[in-house]
From TrEMBL, chains A, B:
Signal is among the record's keywords: no
UniProt membrane topology term: Multi-pass membrane protein
Domain of life: Eukaryota
GO cellular component terms, semicolon-separated: membrane
Organism: Dendrobium nobile
InterPro entries listed in its UniProt record: ALMT
Subcellular localization(s) per the UniProt record: Membrane
Protein name, per record: Aluminum-activated malate transporter 10
Keywords of the record: Ion channel, Ion transport, Membrane, Transmembrane, Transmembrane helix, Transport
Entry keyword annotation includes Lipoprotein: no
Any one Gene Ontology BP term: malate transport
Record field: transmembrane: 74-93, 99-118, 130-147, 153-173, 185-204, 216-237
Signal peptide: none
């Protein structure tokens, strides 16, 4: 990490004349007017330098690209630094120091561990930490009070076995999915606080005083952290989830169109690979939806926005994406259908794919402006009509091909037909997957409509 | 959590006679010999009790099932409790207390935060914590030394701005995927330690002494934690990953067979859904593979076992599972192929599916005993032959059907044929996906063979 930090602090480290010495020295040498002779030596130092500089410039470029792609990540780094600098003042400045005492350390620690990229993440950790510190601390004080009524040997046994039992049970409960999802961090902090207070209570007499001090510093840490997180360029998990779903829906629409184009034109379409993003974004969707549930109302999203329904939309999209994956592999099958058959079906198939992807695009537009669409039901109807057209094109396929090939009354008829069914297999598969995809698109439409109902999308017309 | 703990401590709470009062009261009331009258009242208390007892018994059953399904989770809870109880002794017992001082708190904290379910997880966190504490603390002492050479105002500026800069840069670097995967926890601890030492250094004179004390306690915490984790019923991420892949491969084989059976027999086969597990286990595979890389040699796995190749095997299996998902939806299509055609193809298809799933089962058996298989290449050859048989069955399909239907010279011939192509679409799709699946199975075979080469599987014959 130290290396990384140095590199990103000086983004252009020594790209040329550094045969002589490690990168840091270069500027010095040039300033001193070093001789040209050294520049022509190709010793191991030069080779090492080249390797290092290549590696360093790769890293710098990568970091630079990462920052340029999403400047919010840079801002997040600065926010953490700022929050820490602010909280450090509690230590440095004497009046504040007298106020919170040596426990100010807990404020620093709180900021470091609960400051997350999204507001939801920080709230989740902050609220978990606050609740777990309160309950864990309270319980520990209670146990300590009971233990203090007994003699010293029993006190040790009671305190130590309570730590053992509580730690075991709470650790086991972390495996429960519902607890894992919402209170995983809280469970850790609960065990931590309970152990620390129970254990330190054995030495420190003023237990309640200590607990109170610790709570106030943790409260300071949490509030500074949340204020910085929410007031300076906040990153909302909810908005991110919303945008991710919209972006994925567009990608799905494009890759569907792309696959069909690729198949019928034979040209590689880059956009045809977009469905892979949809397949791989389950993890992001789930974690964003979990975090979004902790967030207050922001932007167009109310307090109890139905974030879990976004996961349903995501699941419907993934089910569609699996079909596109199969479509993609069937379009790259070794056996290729005769051009004639392809040409016959291409129009209907392209129409169906453009109707399906049109419906997806309309959905993403609806979600973007959070309006329900007037023309969506028409689009779905058109999509279904396009399916019927594909079906009738399929029905008219053998006649037409046979006619054009002039095989109608030929003796070789049967052989050719057999051949043609074999050859048409990938095409038939392709077409039938395309029809399957339109069914899956209907599933996405239903999921989005349900979302629209739950989130009370505005009834006005779509933007098209 | 408190409720959970109580419930799981007494696993059979009041399954029968508890109409009177909430669960906790029952024993008391019975002991006091309470009147029968109360048992027949159906007031709000009774309703509340019923609701609570139903809920409680659900939770208990769920926890019980969870523990019974995987007793290692219960053992993990007990291990954490044990490690904490041991480390607490450092606080309780006076001689030890004098040795490590008030910093013993850090040992407790270390155990709580680095004790993970798998050995790999604990090692990852433990090593990260140790390295980050050393580097962060060392750097902070250095910065502090420089700052102490200046006057007080400058000292404040230097310390505070170094906290700001380092925290920003390290936080940003956490977004780099490679750092995120391996050093995410270390980055947090680095910032934490640096801030704490830099900040507390301003007050505490004996900085080096403090740092040394803290390091020794953290070392105690890490060693207790790792010893308990590795010596008492260790859970190895590596073995878990190995078993997960094997189990998923069996599921894949079963669900392939199940889908084909379901299609041709028309009966629901429960095992046909197994492929869904394969689709959903990417997250587990990735995290287990990351953690396994931290683990020392254990069982049959050497120190540099190629864990990342398991991810490749998993990816190949998922690509196969997507195809089975498409197969599954095509087998539930609305249009059903004529029984005649289905019957004609069923034998070849069932043979192909059993050859494909046989190859998968052989692979899983190979992986289980970590041997390379002698008969695998034969099985793949047989699978390819089965593909050819399916193809020739497809070729002979139209003739046969037409013959049996007696339509060869009929005038309605064309109409029937059109109808039959339309009707045969789902069947053709099904068959062609089945052939595609055999290609994907070859991909899995290749991935496993590469794994076998990297992990040096024993060359002996397979167990069949």
């Amino acid at each position: 990490m130290a290396a990384t930090s140095k590199v990103s602090a000086m983004p252009l480290p020594a790209a040329s004349t550094m045969q002589v010495a490690p990168p840091e020295w270069r500027v010095t040498i040039i300033e001193e007017g070093s001789s040209v002779k050294i520049e022509h030596e190709f010793g191991p130092a030069r080779r090492a330098y080249l390797a290092i500089s290549t590696k360093a410039s790769t890293i710098v470029k990568m970091l630079w690209r990462m920052g340029a792609d999403d400047p919010r990540k840079v801002v997040h780094g600065l926010k953490v630094g700022f929050a820490l600098a602010v909280v450090s003042l509690f230590y440095y400045l004497r009046p504040l120091y007298d106020g919170v005492g040596g426990a100010a350390m807990w404020a620093v620690m709180t900021v470091v561990v609960i400051f997350e990229y999204t507001v939801g993440g920080s709230l989740y950790k902050g609220l978990n930490r606050a609740a777990a510190t309160l309950t864990g601390g309270g319980l520990a004080v209670g146990v300590h009070y009971i233990a203090s009524k007994t003699d010293e040997a029993w006190e040790l046994v009671i305190l130590n076995s309570s730590v053992f039992i509580l730690a075991s049970v709470v650790t086991f409960s972390r495996f429960v999915p519902a607890i894992k999802r919402r209170f995983d961090y809280g469970a850790t902090i609960f065990i931590l606080t309970f152990s620390l207070v129970a254990v330190s209570g054995y030495r420190v007499d003023q237990l309640v005083n200590l607990a109170q001090q610790r709570l106030s510093t943790i409260a300071i840490g949490i509030s500074i952290c949340l204020m910085v997180c929410m007031l300076i360029c906040p990153v909302w998990a909810g908005s991110d989830l919303h945008c991710l779903i919209i972006k994925n829906m567009d990608k799905l629409a494009e890759s569907l169109e792309g696959c069909v184009e690729e198949y019928f034109s034979g040209k590689e379409a880059q956009k045809a690979r977009g469905y892979k993003c949809v397949i791989n974004s389950k993890l992001s969707e789930d974690s964003l939806a979990n975090l979004a549930a902790w967030e207050p109302a922001h932007g167009p999203f109310g307090f109890r926005h139905p974030w879990s329904q976004y996961q349903q939309v995501g699941a419907a999209m993934r089910s569609c994406a699996y079909c596109i994956e199969a479509l993609h592999s069937s379009s790259h099958s070794e056996i290729q259908a005769p051009e004639l058959m392809k040409r016959h079906l291409s129009e209907a198939c392209i129409k169906l794919s453009s109707k399906s992807s049109g419906a997806l695009k309309e959905l993403s537009a609806c979600m973007e402006c959070m309006q329900s669409s007037e023309c969506l039901s028409d689009m779905v109807k058109e999509m279904k009509e396009a399916v019927e057209e594909v079906k009738s094109a399929m029905k008219s396929l053998p006649t037409q091909c046979n006619n054009e090939l002039g095989l109608e009354k030929d003796d070789d008829n049967m052989v050719m037909k057999r051949q043609s069914l074999m050859e048409s297999m990938p095409l038939v598969t392709f077409v039938s997957l395309l029809m399957e995809i339109s069914v899956k698109v209907e599933g996405v439409v239903e999921a989005v409509e349900k979302l629209g109902g739950l989130a009370e999308f505005k009834p006005s017309g779509s933007k098209f």
